[in-house]
Design a protein that fits this description.
With 227 residues, the chain is of the alpha+beta class. It contains nine helices and ten strands. The chain has a six-stranded mixed β-sheet with strand order 5-10-9-8-7-6, with helices on both faces. A four-stranded antiparallel β-sheet has the order 1-2-4-3. Strand 3 and strand 4 form a beta hairpin. Helix 5 crosses helix 8.
């Protein structure tokens, strides 16, 4: 579904929440302009909105709409034809030995918030005052317009929760939302392992595609998506 089709069908008018602007988190010196829709109005066609460049955050659906810039590209993996590279097979085989995986409903706990805060301080060098609290965790990762279709992909090691991936299950796809992990397990490439595991989950559930979110060629932190 293209953006023009969505607008002509009247869906934007019904679900329209407005535009938001902020410094671009991906390209320095650029401004990001986002179109926001109420996810409750469009949740029944969200899988098609993905192909029009939309993503979900909490109960909102959004799409970059930056004048003069179209760097944000939707990236998805065709599940049936995906084959692991040699390096991915190495990460997969090691991860299967190291981690136990579970799928669970998306839910809040103090343990999960502490895990996310450790990850953001380690991986993104966020200062204590920048780290999320319970309200922001719930708003971003638990409150959802998709209900029980939003789930957690959990990584466990030695009885401890060491990684959480939030994903949406859609009729024909799985769409990843966010992933964070305990810095203590960073040497086992938990981010790459979780992507490979979710692709395998999509295959088991009979899905055609796995959505990785946006890819921006000039963004260093997104290089793993190209791989």
């Amino acid at each position: 579904m293209k953006l023009l089709e969505i607008m002509s069908a009247g869906l934007v008018e019904m679900a329209y929440l407005g535009y938001g602007r902020c410094p671009c988190p991906y390209l320095p010196e650029e401004e990001m302009r986002l179109l926001y829709l109420d996810g409750v109005w469009v949740e029944h066609i969200y899988d098609r909105l993905l192909d029009a460049g939309f993503r979900r955050s909490g109960t909102h659906v959004y799409r970059p709409d930056c004048k003069g810039c179209d760097a944000c590209k939707v990236i998805r993996v065709p599940v049936d034809t995906f084959r692991k590279t040699k390096e991915q097979r190495r990460i997969w085989n090691r991860g299967v030995e190291v981690f136990t995986t579970r799928v669970a409903p998306a839910a809040y706990s103090d343990e999960k918030l502490a895990l996310q805060r450790r990850y953001l301080a380690f991986q993104h060098k966020q200062e204590p005052q920048e780290l999320p609290d319970e309200e922001s965790y719930r708003r971003f990762l638990v409150d959802t317009c998709l209900g029980a279709r939003t789930r957690e992909f959990q990584l466990w090691r030695g009885g401890a929760l060491v990684g959480i991936g939030i994903f949406d299950e859609l009729p024909r796809a799985i769409s990843t939302v966010n992933f964070f992990f305990d810095p203590a397990v960073a040497r086992w490439s938990p981010g790459t392992f979780s992507v490979l595991a979710e692709i395998e989950l999509a295959r088991q559930w009979g899905k055609s595609h796995y959505y990785l979110g946006y890819y921006i060629a000039g963004c260093r932190t997104m290089k793993y998506k190209a791989r």
